[in-house]
Amino acid sequence: MKTFPRYRKARGFTIVELLIVIVVIGILAVIAISSFARAQDQARRNALISDLKSAAKQLASDLATGETYPATLAASNGGRGVTVTQGATVNYVPNNTVSPPSYCLDYTLGSLQYYIKHNAGAAEGVCQGAGLVAQYYTNMTLSGTPTVSRIEPSISYDWGNAYVAAPGIPLDGYSVRWTGLVTAPSTGSYTFHAFTDDGVRVWVNGTLIINQWIDQHATRTGTISLNAGQQYPIVYEMYENAGSAAAALDWTPPAGTQVNIPASAFTYSR
After folding, report:
1. CB burial of residue 65 (10 Å; 0-12, 13-18, 19+)
2. 195 vs 40, which has greater pLDDT?
3. For the purposes of burial, counting CB atoms within 10 Å of the CB of 205, is it exposed (0-12), middle (13-18) or buried (19 or more)?
4. pLDDT cut 90: percent of the chain above it
5. Is 165:136 a contact under the CB 8 Å cutoff?
């Protein structure tokens, strides 16, 4: 009698084995997605740094040609601008009031933030330094894109009616915004004095302490309590209508006398 080989019946996967397979597939998928995300992030980082270096090279060429850095990035390269990473937020702060002139430029793309200065390579972070960011507008409403953006050590100007506040700014009908951080040297009540012609508004730590947005030639004051060594956001806005123009910001510290707020008390940060 002919015999046939016996075959063992195939055994299926158990529930535990199926779960193990699913977990392994999930881990591999997470690793693959994470690796892809890291590769994309690195590519964006490389593009950001490359574009910053390209912009810095063009700004250096602008300085060599005109002995100053352009007031805006749009004015660089003979009005053709510089390379900006698509989708990036840009902050450019030139300072042609010092010798030699300086600038800081930063690009932000999502969580990536890199900056470059006139005398250093690209580094992670945003522009910071001593002084305030001053933005000058060719209108009295601080609207649109500023014509001039630069770093200024403090606010102490009396332009009168014969001197322009900044290149490209008319004698009348303009506005300025200064922004940054102010550090209190001691704890207590500070009185801020804003001398202005014409309108003025001052915020310290988000509190509007001076609000006289009217035509005037006057000193306005506001008081706020500050803690020693702490940095507070500060904003000073003014507009000039016609005639004389001026802007100055002093303070009276606790148990002190009125002085113009020194550059050492200010820090700018985008």
Report:
1. exposed
2. 195
3. middle
4. 47
5. yes
- Decide if 230 contacts 89 (C-beta within 8 A): no
Give the whole-angstrom CA distance, residue 79 versus residue 141. Answer: 26
Contact 84, 69 (CB under 8 A): no
Structure-block tokens of residue 47: 């593009």
pLDDT digits (tens, 9 = 90+) for 56-67: 999 999 999 888
Tokens at residue 35, please?
A: 């690796």
Q: How many C-beta atoms lie closer than 10 Å to residue 232's C-beta?
A: 18
What are the φ and ψ backbone dihedral angles of 38, each rounded to 5 degrees? -65, -40
The pLDDT confidence band at residue 130, using thresholds 50, 70 and 90, is confident
**Contacts for 105 with CB less than 8 Å, ≥ 6 apart:** 52, 55, 56, 59, 73, 90, 91, 92, 93, 115, 116, 117, 127
250-258, long-range: CB < 8 A, 24+ apart: 250/192, 250/193, 250/195, 251/190, 251/191, 251/192, 251/193, 252/190, 252/191, 252/193, 253/184, 253/185, 253/186, 253/188, 253/190, 254/186, 254/187, 254/188, 254/189, 254/190, 255/188, 258/191, 258/193
CB 127 within 8 A of CB 91: yes
- Out of 40-49, 164-173, 174-183, the most confident range is 174-183
Q: Is the CB of residue 173 less than 8 Å from the CB of residue 139?
A: yes
Q: Do residues 236 and 249 lie in contact, with contact meaning Cβ atoms separated by under 8 Å? A: yes
Phi-psi label, residue 97: left if phi above 0, alpha if psi -120 to 50, beta otherwise: alpha
